[in-house]
Amino acid sequence: MFNLENAISTWKRGLQNSRAFLSEDIEELERHVRDHVEYSATNGLSLEQAYRNAIREIGDPLGMEDEYRKVFWEKVASRRGLLKEIIWEMNMFAGYVRIAVRNLWRNKGYTSINILGLSTGLACFLIILMFVRDEMSFDRHHENADRIVRVLYGERQVVTPTAVGPTMHREMPEVESFTRIYPFGMYRPTSIRRGDLMFEEARFFYGDSTTFDVFSFDVLAGDPARALNRPGTVVLTNSMAVKYFGTENPMGQTLLVGAGTEYEVTAVIEDLPLTSHLQFDFLASFASTSWASREIWNSANFYTYLLLAENATIDGAKAKLDVLVDDRRALSGGAIPDDFELNLQPLTDIRSIHEGRNVFVFMFSAIGLLILLIACANYTNLATARAARRAREVGIRKLSGAHRGQLARQFFGESALLVLFAMAIAAGLVGLAVEPFNNLSGKAVVFAPLSDPLVMPVLLGLGLLISLIAGSYPALMLASFQPAKVLKNSSRTGSGSFGFRKVLVIFQFSVTVFLLAGMMIVRFQMSHIQDRRLGFDKENVIVLTISDAELRNSYQNVKNAFLQLPEITNASAIHSIPGYQFSGYGMKIEGQDIQTDDSNGAILVSGIPADQDVVETLGLTMIAGRAFNDDPGYRAEDGSYRYLVNESLLEEIEWEAEDAIGRRINLMSNRVGQIVGVYEDYHYVSLHSDIGPQALFIEPGQFGFLMLKTSGNQIGETIAEIERVWKEIAPGRAFVFKFLDDEFDALYRSDRQIGTIISIFSILAVFIACLGLLGLASYSAEQRTKEIGIRKALGANVAQIFVLMTSELARLVAISVIISVPFAWYVMSRWLDNFAYQIELAWWIFALAGVTALTLAVVTVTYQSVKAALADPIHSLRYE
Amino acid sequence: MFSKNLVAASLQPIVLTILSRQEAYGYEIMQRALELSGGQLKWTAGTLYPLMHRLEARGLIVSVWRPSESGPRRKYYRITSKGSGALEVDKKEWLDIHSILMSLWGTELSAA
């Protein structure tokens, strides 16, 4: 039975889906139709006939929509009731959302795969973005960050002589201010005492009174301008103030430093942010040191920072500095060697360039972008595949008068809604992941999506971009379908777009293979380093600090006390432990003017003061001569030094090991002595660097650590015993011990962190790519249902069908491998250049990455393929 | 029946003329045009209403919703003084064209 109201409301709904009509327009048209029906009905037509005439009279719906659209903006512009239009538009929008939600809900599998992939991708990207931003913000918190430079000795050495800062300040108008920072505790932890409290502090530094002119610190108490202008004053960070003074006011109180020198607390500053390359807890006045009064050009132990004048440039200052250095060299009479050069380094380059973090920043940015691209590609891919599945729906909607723009809007709307979900989930994921990520990377990144000036705009911008890009393909493709074609033969639809999808899959898997190969190479390199023969035995060695003067002076007694413990097999005092033996000396050899202090012609060697038992304790291998054995404390009877040298040192000066024994060298200044033994090279600094020349000599005044070699049995009890002995011989001093192997491994902490982070993100990237593949496989299986049915009906077996389903994929992955290998090879060999000892980039690593990617891909699609292969052809062929 | 172009071109002066006599709603305007032309001027709603909206946007007519006793309210259109001015211009143009055509065809017409 014909119902006029139903008919009219159905017809009206068609109009409501188009943006060309305002609500008023529809009302007017509806009234028009009613008038027409009324008129025709009074002329004797049936209601149904009258309605049909009225609708026909209105004309072609598409033509009408076009006409309305032409005047739409003209109307809106002239309209007073703009608000009404906005409400109308919102209504329309709500309609789209409703339809979109319905569509998404109906395809829960697809929706969840898509949201999962996209939100994971977005979350990774956000975390990487915050990581990169944190890296970029290093040292930028100083007010004059752009004008601060650090003086380098040569290309890389960060410590400079005392004369550099003051001389430059006096003679160069470009230098507005300067400060020298003496990282005292880094060379040897300093004991700080207050009453019963005593700690060894490695972050006890000295600084010029001008430190606060150059750098900006958050001062909590005291006057920074005067805090460091006399000897015996110290500035504390807040956490040190709490550590030593608790709730008391630390201002004006004293701390005992080293052997017991009194330092008055004159200021308290906020703890230094983690994004500062300069890290100290105590800054004592440089005037307290004996160095302060001496401006000398050798003996480089001090960081020098300059505040350049507003109008000065680094290049200009550097040119003047060269002249100044030449000048001083001429006056020095050989004390300043010919190759002495100073360079200026912008403060903001220290983290990124000097510490090489820009490589990682670049790597992470690249990975972040790649993950984002994979996620987008995924999203687009799934959306197009699914859109093709909806071709029939689209065809029908088009036939019933849906306009192209209307359909496109619908797809954009669905796309935007999905992205919105994904964004919310991504924000949640980042919130959960930020803490573990901070722990992993040693950062203190804060995720505050609402107040952060970067996160929201980026998230929204990306969201908009992704919904546009990912939505545009299906929106435009589908909307332009020819309904007749689609409805006639739906199984072929979308085959044209499959080329596009293949490209996306190839892209995703190229990235996947790239990341997999990168991840493997990082892992292999890390284990290569860890497994490398170091040339010394780092196992079961416990390290204690004996840097305070009292302990150092009685190190022999301390050592003997520990040797009484049955589990301790060897012990040796040493200046610094392997991995950290940087201490550099100029060395002169026989045949040169060996007695003088003239640095010309000297070669730089690592000179490490150690005691008689160092060879046994570290398990070094002697290849010529003897160990120190019973060589007495300082020097031999004739007042000369005894030296053990490594092979690299002999190579450098071209002496044969056997000939070297008994020949004389001098580690300047004033350490003439003879070589008594040659030991096999061991890695005294991290494997990032080559082994250079090294010499060991006995000089107890420089000892900083006591190494205790234990049997390795019952390590817990041994440590308890060591602590007991420590309490007896070093009363009042905190018992702090380390394991040599831990300390050595710590050298690769940042490499390992990077490795772990890369692995995590690579795995996530692979995961996202596989999600996409899963969706695509089910699409492909669905598309080929009929083909598979026919093949099976004609006798194909399950295995053949499986091969049919997966061979295409295998080919795509193979292409991806070919594309990505050159990139991976190039990028990873650049990374490996950071290491002096690298693994070979063998072909099989890339093959392995490719096979892994292929395996993952095949496993991902297996379920769909097997399902398709096992399906009874009756079902797939029946509905034809 | 007239050609599509001619219908489109004459729409504005006809609508304005009808409205210059009395305000009217869309369907009414269409019916009046149909009657006046003896069934020759058959517009569709899809062409009439967009034109009405355009005229309104340009200030030649104004609209007002009025309740109706026979069903939902109707949107009535009324000509403005600006619209009357435009109608005068239209009128002159059409008559000019008419007289040109007349002078061109005058002899033929009388010969026929």
Please give a structural write-up.
- The complex is a heterodimer of chains A (880) and B (112).
- By secondary structure, chain A is of the alpha+beta class.
- Chain A folds into four domains: 4-79; 145-347, no CATH class; 359-530 and 749-878, no CATH class; 549-732, no CATH class.
- Chain A is 55% helix and 14% strand.
- Chain A contains 31 helices and 23 strands.
- In chain A, helix 19 runs antiparallel to helix 27.
- Chain A is elongated, with a radius of gyration of 38 Å.
- The relative contact order of chain A is 0.09.
- By secondary structure, chain B is an alpha+beta fold.
- Chain B has one domain (4-111): Winged helix-like DNA-binding domain superfamily/Winged helix DNA-binding domain (Arc Repressor Mutant, subunit A, Orthogonal Bundle), CATH 1.10.10.
- Chain B contains four helices and three strands.
- Chain B has helices spanning 4-21, 26-36, 45-57, 81-111, and strands spanning 24-25, 61-68, 71-79.
- A three-stranded antiparallel beta sheet of chain B has the order 1-3-2.
- In chain B, a hairpin with a 2-residue loop joins strand 2 (61-68) and strand 3 (71-79).
- In chain B, helix 1 crosses helix 3 and helix 1 (4-21) packs across helix 4.
- Chain B is globular and about 55 Å long.
- In chain B, 23% of the residues are buried.
- Chain A binds chain B through residues 24-25, 27-32, 34-36, 38-39, 57-61, 63-64, 67-68, 70-71, 74-75, 77-78, and chain B through 25-28, 31, 44-47, 49-50, 53-54, 56-59, 68, 70-75.
